[in-house]
Amino acid sequence: MRKGKLKFASMIVAYNEERLIKGCLSGLTDLFNIVGISTPWCGEHKGFDRTEQYAREMGAYIFKQNFKTEGEQRTAISKFAKEKGYDYIFVIDADEYYRRESIQNAMKFIEEHPAKRYDIDREYNFWKNENWEIIPRISKVRLFCVPTGTVFPGYRNVNVPKLIMPTNVILYHFSYVGPDERILSKITHFSHANEIRKGWYENVWKKWTPEMENIHVTGDGSHFKKAIPFRCPLDIKRRYHLQ
């Protein structure tokens, strides 16, 4: 929480993200953090890992309830935060890392510019590990914060006018990072599981070389043109390796 005009929370929807959850939460110390634990929206549930345990150790509130869709889970957490008296909720996944100062910059911006939706302008997407960055860089398309009580009709999206966060709010995104088993679990269980292009895991993820292009998991892959070497900030790198 933060002393000021508005009260801020975060929702972190996390299915078996024990490798990433500590690093994610370590940058969110000024927020009331709600970690949503549910059986997966897609695919077969074979058991939970230590995500809940690690999130509790980091001081997060655990919202444990099973949902059939991403929209239902995000809506339930959003409404819960409103019931608890919070004004805005940051929408953050376990593989999304922010520095504390970025969250503070975001809260200040929201207090000065009220809106129904805020998106991220500056984002670094990693590939395989913290030493490779996906290009071209993505901007202005990722929902980041909404008023509590917001209803999510599906996925991580709300069809309302949006403001773009200033460039001093930076996302370090570890979406396609980690061992093979994490990536296989991700593409099997997340909301876009039925959109995965055929053979991506075997022919792109497992056989990737730096020369490879069009590596995105959906469509023709061109959304991610390729991965290039990246010098990850030391503090983000250390958080990534928290376990």
Short summary of the structure?
The protein is an alpha/beta fold.
How many domains, in number, for the residues? Answer: 1
State the share of residues found in helices, binned by percent: 25-40%
For this structure, what is the CATH class? Alpha Beta
Assembly context of the chains: single chain
Instruction: Let me know the number of strands.
Output: 11
CATH architecture term: Alpha-Beta Complex
Strand order of the largest sheet: 3-2-1-4-8-6-9
Order of helices and strands: EHEHEHEEHEEEEEHHEH
Q: In whole angstroms, how far apart are the ends?
A: 25 Å
User: What would the CATH topology be?
Assistant: Spore Coat Polysaccharide Biosynthesis Protein SpsA, Chain A
Percentage beta strand: 25-35%
Tertiary shape? globular
The overall average pLDDT, rounded, is 95
Count of runs of 4 or more consecutive helical residues:
7
Low-confidence stretches: none
Radius of gyration: 17 Å
| Secondary structural class | alpha/beta
Most strands sheet: 7 strands, mixed
CATH superfamily: Spore Coat Polysaccharide Biosynthesis Protein SpsA, Chain A
